[in-house]
Amino acid sequence: MFRQALRQVSRQATSATRRTYATEAASSGALKLSLALPHQTLYTENEVEQVNVPSINGDLGILANHIPIVEQLRPGLLEIISKGGQTEQYFVSGGIAAVQPGNKLTISAIEAFKPEQFDLEAVKSLIADAQKRAASSDEVVAAEANIELEVLEALQGVAK
Amino acid sequence: MFRLGVNQIARTSGARNYATLREIEGRLKSIKNIEKITKTMKIVASTRLTRAQRAMTSSRVFNQSDKEFMENADPAKPEGAKSLLVVVSSDKGLCGSIHTQVAKAARRKVEELNGNVDIVALGDKVKAQLIRTHSEKLKLAFSGVGKEAPNFNEVALIVDEIQKLGKYENIEILYNRFVSAVSFDPAAFSVYAADAIEKAPGLSKYELEGDSVAETLSELSFANSLLSAMAEAYASETSARRNAMDNASKSAGDMINSYSILYNRTRQAVITNELVDIITGASSLE
């Protein structure tokens, strides 16, 4: 947990030096969201009010007329607030979110599920399992387990 | 000597009359069995086709965001650098010209790039075709892919394996694009290396944070494009197999028709011959 926070801080420190600004002005209109998984399409250019995106640089709230950006996602909760004000939540494991010129937000996630679809007990047992492997002397196994832990710990906070 | 020879001929021709009847019967049976098999394969392909098409549509949408970004950023293709061709196909035949088409497209691409390429083959069929002409360029081949619609996990593993070959400035993925249920055509996805993305003229349209965005984008775009290519290739293959099996069943039906006519004619001829024999025998006794 601490390590993750540290990493995030160091990442932010480097990013501060390398920030490029967009030259393209954003156009007007409602925000159109496309949320796609490799095997399923959840949203196709549906008009929404706001989308909260978990990025590796911190959480982002994206409204209409956002400047074009490209952000890498971290495991976390994706919140979609529709025009009517209802909130849809999805847990995403990672991917890329891009605001395209023309007020389009495209999110490509590898997996996305609603928080209520997760079983907290299963998550806990998986965490215990991954922690065991993270202590392994094999570097590859430990690295894989650490990535798993990162996802699972984020999931633990989300699952009900 | 001569008489003996004549005797033998007469015997064989006489015997062949009956044998032909049995032979035709046997052939008719085997064609009927083949028809059953091709019909079943057609039904299997038809049911798979709807699933394959669904997988293809969602992978197209998944790839869309990436494509849009690349269109806006518009990275330049590096000149003169070594390219990598990833040729997407599968292990199984009986689906028309699908593997030949993509192999041909790969050969054309190699010509176009003056042979300065390495090739990765996905699927045994295309590997067998490319190894004949470009065995020294073929670096890696995967088998057991393309049996069903691809999932991201499988694709990520393949991408990892391909990236062990080293860095390529230019990666092209060749596949059969699904046009409609009756047609497909070979197409290509370009994957840009991280450097090319960083130098892209249109990149300033976007706001980027962090160092590794270009690299992440390049890797994800590779995986994305490969997933899309495999989904399209699978859909085209399934539809090509459906059509091939449809044609095969039709031809088998035609053959069954002509063979049953031949069978009936031969049967009647045999009966007539026997009757003639009996009647001549009976009349000679009178």
UniProtKB/TrEMBL annotation, chain A:
Keyword Ion transport tagged: yes
A single cellular component GO annotation: proton-transporting ATP synthase complex
GO molecular function, one term: proton-transporting ATP synthase activity, rotational mechanism
Chief location category: mitochondrion
Keyword entries, A-Z: ATP synthesis, CF(1), Hydrogen ion transport, Ion transport, Membrane, Mitochondrion, Mitochondrion inner membrane, Transit peptide, Transport
Protein's UniProt keywords contain Coiled coil: no
Family in the record: Belongs to the ATPase epsilon chain family.
Full protein name: ATP synthase subunit delta, mitochondrial
Organism: Pichia sorbitophila (strain ATCC MYA-4447 / BCRC 22081 / CBS 7064 / NBRC 10061 / NRRL Y-12695) (Hybrid yeast)
TrEMBL record, chain B:
Superkingdom of this protein's organism: Eukaryota
Any one GO molecular-function label of the UniProt entry: proton-transporting ATP synthase activity, rotational mechanism
Pfam family, one: ATP-synt
SUPFAM superfamilies: ATP synthase (F1-ATPase), gamma subunit
Keyword vocabulary terms for this entry: ATP synthesis, CF(1), Hydrogen ion transport, Ion transport, Membrane, Mitochondrion, Mitochondrion inner membrane, Transport
Keyword Hydrolase assigned: no
Major localization listed first in the record, in broad terms: mitochondrion
Keyword Membrane included in the entry's annotation: yes
GO cellular component term of the entry, any: proton-transporting ATP synthase complex
Record's subcellular location: Mitochondrion inner membrane
Topology in the lipid bilayer: Peripheral membrane protein
InterPro entries: ATP_synth_F1_ATPase_gsu (IPR035968), ATP_synth_F1_gsu (IPR000131), ATP_synth_F1_gsu_CS (IPR023632)
Family that this chain belongs to: Belongs to the ATPase gamma chain family.
Subunit field text: F-type ATPases have 2 components, CF(1) - the catalytic core - and CF(0) - the membrane proton channel. CF(1) and CF(0) have multiple subunits.
Protein name: ATP synthase subunit gamma
